[in-house]
Amino acid sequence: MNFTNITIGRRIKIGSISILILVIMLGLVAYYQTYKIHQQTETLYEHPLKVRRALGELTQAIFLMKIDFLMLSGNTDSHSRENLIQNLTYNNVVARGQIDTLYSAFLGPQSYIDSAKATLTYWIEEGMSSSRDGLAQNQSTPHLVQSQEAHLYNGAANTLAHIKKISDFALAKSYQLFDQSRRERDTLAIQLIALVFFILVLASVINNGLLNSMRTPLAEILCAAKAFRKKNYSARSKYASRNEFGELSEAFNSLVTTIEEVLTLNEKIALISGVMIHEDDPHHFFYSTLKTLMEITTSQMASLYLLSEDKKCFEQCTSIGLDQTLPVSFLAHEQEGEFGCALATQTVTVLSAIPESTRFMYKSVYGTIVPSGIITIPVVASKEVVAIISLACVNTYSTEAVSFINAVLNTLTARFISILSTKKNQALTNILKIQNMELLAQKSELTAQSTELAEQNRELEAQKKQLDDAGKLKTSFLSNMSHELRTPLNSVIALSGVLHRKCRGKLPPEEYAYLEVIERNGRMLLALINDILDLSRIESGKEELDLNAFTAQEIVNETIQMLKPQADEHSIEMVTEFPTEPLTLVNDAHKIQHILQNILANAIKFTEKGSITSSITTTSEQIIISIKDTGIGIHPDHISFIFDEFRQADGSTSRRYGGTGLGLAIAKKYACLVGGDISVTSILGEGSTFSVFLPKSISPGVQQNVQISSQKNRIPSQSLKPTSPPSETTILVVDDSNPALIQLQDILSEEGYTVLIATGGEEALSIIEKTIPHAIILDLMMPDIDGFEVLGTIREADRTAHVPVLILTAKQITQEELNFLTRNNIHQLIQKGDINRTELCLAIQSMTHQSIPMPKPIKKQRLFSSKPTLLIVEDNPDNLLTMNALLSDNFMLITATNGQKGIDLAEQKLPDIILMDISLGGMDGITAFKTIRGKQNTAHIPIIAVTANAMLHDKEMILALGFDGYVPKPIETTTLFDTLQEALYDL
Ligand code: ADP
Question: The whole model's pTM is what?
Answer without folding.
Answer: 0.36
